[in-house]
Design brief:
Blueprint: E1 11-12, E2 18-22, E3 25-29, H1 41-44, H2 47-76, H3 82-88, H4 92-98, E4 102-105, E5 108-115, E6 121-124, E7 130-131, E8 138-140, H5 149-158, E9 193-194, H6 197-206, E10 210-212, E11 215-222, E12 225-232, E13 242-243, E14 247-250, H7 264-278
Antiparallel strand pairs: 1-2, 2-3, 4-5, 4-8, 5-6, 6-7, 9-13, 10-11, 11-12, 12-14
Helix pairs in contact: 2-4, 6-7
Length: about 290
């Protein structure tokens, strides 16, 4: 959203109206300066309206790409050089995806508030106290590793801010204590019926998962090494019915990982993927 330091730039268009981009929202005001609740069709389809709409769509695609990259950092748990964040921070698309995330800098945990041109970060604690670590790389914390998600969410609520990348509101799943540590699959999400296989694969794509050999896949890092969670959807004709299968985790060598060795992030993300896809199955009520 715009601020007094970042005023809207109004572009004249038909009927005395003016258009502006407020972030990625197309905003219209009439000749008297009153901001309208919606953009009239004649204004939206005017040359100025089409140009701003095209620019808005480009900004939305850019922001989606930024968010996907930041989410990959969250899943990988890798330290990001502060100098890299300093270069992208001035970009509103990047900044909106990074600001207010819970990060670790030089062993200190806090909400990321700012990154200077020199790569110095400014954080805020759960009680709202600001502080600036002396330096170091930035690691985006996965909520499965945070001991008190509610406290950080409370800090956001108190500041009346929200995260541009889903972190604290991300679904977290912990490994049950009664899981057989020697087993190599979870069957809780098997048997989900889809009238057509394409319905399942489309649902996987809508949630950002890729397909590989009949499996929906999410890549994470567990115990310092890459781990891939795989949920079987099917590899037959996309128009044929399909039943979901097991959820497994494999290492870099494609070997199944025993459930007792699946780390908390890999477990959470694998189960989250299976639950999201399984949730779209056809039920008896349907």
């Amino acid at each position: 959203m715009s601020t007094p330091l970042d005023p809207l730039v109004w572009v004249p268009t038909v009927g005395g109206h003016e258009l502006a981009l407020d972030g990625t929202a197309l905003t219209c005001r009439n000749s008297s300066g009153r901001v309208l609740k919606s953009v009239p069709k004649a204004v939206r389809t005017s040359p100025a309206g089409e140009r701003l709409t095209e620019l808005r769509d480009r900004l939305l695609r850019h922001e989606a790409e930024c968010r996907a990259t930041v989410e990959s950092w969250l899943l990988a748990g890798v330290p990001i050089p502060a100098a890299l964040l300093a270069r992208v921070w001035p970009d509103p698309g990047w900044r909106s995806c990074l600001r207010h995330l819970v990060v670790v800098v030089d062993g200190q945990v806090g909400l990321l508030e700012d990154v200077s041109e020199e790569g110095r970060t400014r954080l805020r604690g759960p009680d709202g106290t600001p502080y600036a670590p002396p330096g170091g790389s930035v690691t985006v914390s996965h909520p499965a590793l945070l001991p008190d998600v509610a406290a950080w969410q409370g800090a956001l609520d108190a500041a009346q801010t929200a995260q541009g990348t889903t972190q604290l509101a991300r679904e977290v799943h912990h490994r049950p204590a009664d899981v057989d540590p020697e087993a190599t699959s979870v069957d809780d999400y098997a048997g989900g019926y889809f009238e057509e296989l394409r319905h399942a694969t489309t649902r996987a794509a809508q949630h950002g998962f890729v397909m590989r050999g009949g499996f929906a896949v999410v890549r994470t890092v567990g115990r310092g090494a890459p781990v891939q969670a795989r949920y079987w959807l099917g590899a037959d004709d996309p128009g044929l019915p399909a039943d979901t299968g097991r959820l497994i985790w494999v290492d870099e060598a494609e070997r199944p990982v025993p459930l007792g060795e699946v780390g908390p992030v890999a477990w959470s993300e694998g189960v989250r993927m299976a639950a999201l896809i399984y949730g779209g199955r056809q039920t008896h009520d349907q």
